[in-house]
Design goal:
Number of helices: 17
Number of strands: 14
Strand content: 15-25%
Helix content: 40-55%
CATH topology of the largest domain: Pyrimidine Nucleoside Phosphorylase, Chain A, domain 2
Structural class: alpha+beta
CATH architecture of the largest domain: 3-Layer(aba) Sandwich
CATH superfamily of the largest domain: Nucleoside phosphorylase/phosphoribosyltransferase catalytic domain
Strand order of the largest sheet: 1-4-5-13-14
Distance between the termini: 53 Å
């Protein structure tokens, strides 16, 4: 086979056979197919898409490009969660220890920032000393000891996705349902789970900005999970404004600790409890999502969830003193305030603009090998619906880059819209998607 011909075939909208897809993916992993040709294949797929059968085969090949972990020796139903990516989306950090504290083992293999969205690994690595790069044997030991583990992809786990993930980020081929589905599910199916909960974002700060696109992606993900014998539930959740108040790796980690102590922002707590309730139900520790939510609230209130997170940080080499005393963490050289341009209500906050602004501040990547500044970020002081006065502080931002302060200041300020009327509120959790279809979500 000839890679150029296969790229042309996909560019022209034709269907790739299993052996043709395998030739491309195996060749990339082995270093035979160069990165520039994979970049062309990704762009062709972005524009032409894949059939349902192609997407399933793409996922299977990505999954079996490496090892599939066996956690059968660990008691309990292993459940993980995955988010399709949002701005201020730090949910995994409080969620995983909460669910583990409820007695459900959580093996979590996470990713780095992708496009304008943040990554769980980057947040964890903002904790000095925390290692997300541990062996599969150590991965098994940590989950056996603590009931929870949070790492990045190793060379053994879906290596095709590991390479392709970084390339998608810097070739503007992220927002493609087959590529997203194959990437997510190949990692999740490889980590040894029995069930999976999905948080599929919709809105301005999501990769899928319309509800219809988000449902299409959720159906694809649930379909793949179900076909592999994993009980899978997806939630469509709103991403038209950032989650919580913190956007940026270290400050999101601090906000996550606040959540584990029961003091987190209401939207972050709400979504954490809904996803956690579903995970606890799938983990057979509750008979319904509602009962699972109650269990999650209980372990936050009694401190067991916070203790679980601190145990994880210590076990994976992190320095807990910064979580207990965040004021000890090094501060950014430049800290600036954004003030309201007028009196009124915050009518909307452009999540996409703020996510892109954080990249400019140094909190994200524009090249595969970019080094992230964990201190860079934006701290909101107001959310949509809040009343503000002209000149009142609505956000702060932090950076080490003196040359971008003025330009990014205008961009962040421009992400806030102010109106004389209070905006209508929309639900944070919109729908639930499972093997039976899509239904509105009600607590």
């Amino acid at each position: 086979m000839n890679v150029v011909e296969l790229i042309r075939k996909k560019r022209n909208g034709e269907i790739l056979a299993s052996d043709e897809m395998k030739f491309i993916i195996d060749g990339y992993v082995q270093g035979i197919v160069p990165e520039y040709q994979i970049a062309a294949f990704l762009m062709a797929t972005y524009f032409r898409g894949m059939t349902t059968e192609e997407t399933a085969e793409f996922t299977r090949l990505m999954l079996h490009s490496g090892d599939v972990i066996d956690l059968s020796s660990i008691a309990g139903t292993k459940v993980d969660k995955h988010s399709t990516g949002g701005v201020g989306d730090k949910i995994s950090l409080p969620l995983a220890p909460i669910v583990a504290a409820c007695g459900v083992p959580v093996p979590m293999i996470s990713g780095r920032g992708l496009g304008h969205t943040g990554g769980t690994l980057d947040k964890l690595e903002a904790i000095p000393g925390f290692s997300t790069n541990i062996s599969i044997e150590e991965y098994k030991k940590v989950i056996a000891e603590i009931g929870l583990v949070m790492i990045g992809q190793t060379k053994e786990i879906a290596p095709a996705d590991k390479k392709m993930y970084a390339l998608r980020d810097v070739t503007s081929t992220v927002e493609c349902i087959p590529l997203i589905a194959g990437s997510i599910m190949s990692k999740k199916l490889a980590e040894g789970i029995d069930a999976l909960v999905l948080d599929v974002k919709t809105g301005r700060g999501a990769f899928m900005q319309t509800y219809e696109q988000s449902v299409e992606l959720a159906r694809a993900l649930v379909g793949i999970g179900t076909s592999f014998g994993k009980e899978t539930i997806g939630f469509i959740t709103d991403m038209n404004q950032p989650l919580g108040y913190a956007i940026g790796n270290w400050i999101e980690t601090v906000e996550s600790v606040d959540c584990l102590r029961g003091n987190g922002p209401s939207d972050v707590m709400e979504l954490t409890y809904v996803l956690g309730g579903a995970m606890v139900m799938l983990g057979r520790k509750a008979s319904s999502i509602s009962e699972g939510i109650d269990r999650c609230k209980e372990v936050v209130a009694n401190g067991k969830a916070f203790e679980k997170f601190m145990a994880l940080v210590e076990r994976q080499g992190g320095e807990t003193k910064y979580l207990l005393h965040p004021e000890l963490y090094p501060r950014s050289a430049f800290q600036r305030k954004i003030t309201a341009s007028d009196d009124g209500f915050i009518s909307s906050i452009d999540s996409l603009e703020l996510g892109l602004s954080v990249i400019t501040l140094g909190g994200g990547r524009t090249k595969v090998d970019d080094i992230i500044d964990p201190r860079a970020g934006i701290l909101l002081k107001k959310k949509a619906g809040d009343l503000v006065k002209r000149g009142e502080v609505i956000a702060e931002y932090f950076t080490e880059k003196s040359d971008i302060v003025d330009s990014v200041h205008s961009r962040i300020a421009g992400a806030f819209s102010i109106d004389v009327s209070k905006p209508k509120t929309s639900p944070l959790v919109i729908s639930v998607v499972d093997k039976n279809g899509v239904t509105p979500f009600h607590y």
